[in-house]
Amino acid sequence: MADNYLQFSEVIANLTEQEEAWLKDQLQSIRVFGEKEYPEDAVPAELADKDADWSGVRFLRDKTDHDPQWDALGFEFNFHEDHDNGGYVTDSWGRHLWLYAEDWGDASNVAWLVQKFLKQFRPDQCWSLTYSATCSKPRVGEFGGGAVFVTADTIRWQNAYDFIEDQRAAFGRKEEAA
Fold it and tell me: pTM of the prediction?
């Protein structure tokens, strides 16, 4: 049996205290009863045994294609200071949020979070992420990857499979014309 992976690693660099606080708030697990949100670890005792109207990570609450039954975040994250590589080189990221997936990731959730962040704090900036799709065995057709480009207004995707299909279609049109 083979294992499939979708891996990525990227940062949101040079965070202000306000941006970091907002990101921490958005990445918090919550339970919603009516329109009232409670952090997962602060649900009132009288509601603790009741089914929430919605539960999950706050930033996903308004994602239209999010399935709340699937409660996986789809990535891991850590906040870091600028890295110092033995005094020789720093990465110039300042305070940053590292977003990554080592085994399986949901790049669409990352893109959604980043787009909300850009709308809130950096509407004139863009952000990108590349990802790899790999397999633990050399199975034909099980390798690829792609990229996502995020602005405050758009999320654009390109993946290896779509590129190949576009090229096959163009080749087919060329052959038909000849």
Answer: 0.87
Q: Which residues contact 130 (CB under 8 A, 6 or more apart)?
A: 8, 10, 145, 146, 147
Which residues are paired to 135 by β-bridges?
4
Give pLDDT tens digits for 55-100. Answer: 899 999 998 887 766 667 899 999 998 765 555 555 789 999 999 9
167: its two tokens: 């090229």
Backbone CA torsion sign across 80, 39, 122, 132: positive
Order of strands, edge to edge, in the sheet holding 76-80? 76-80, 96-101, 4-12, 126-135, 144-151, 155-159
Q: Output 109-112 pairs: Cβ under 8 A, ≥24 positions apart.
A: 109/60, 109/63, 109/66, 109/73, 109/74, 109/75, 110/8, 110/10, 110/74, 110/75, 110/148, 111/148, 111/150, 111/155, 112/59, 112/60, 112/63, 112/155
Question: In DSSP terms, which residues pair with 57 in a beta bridge?
Answer: 29
Rg (CA), the chain: 20
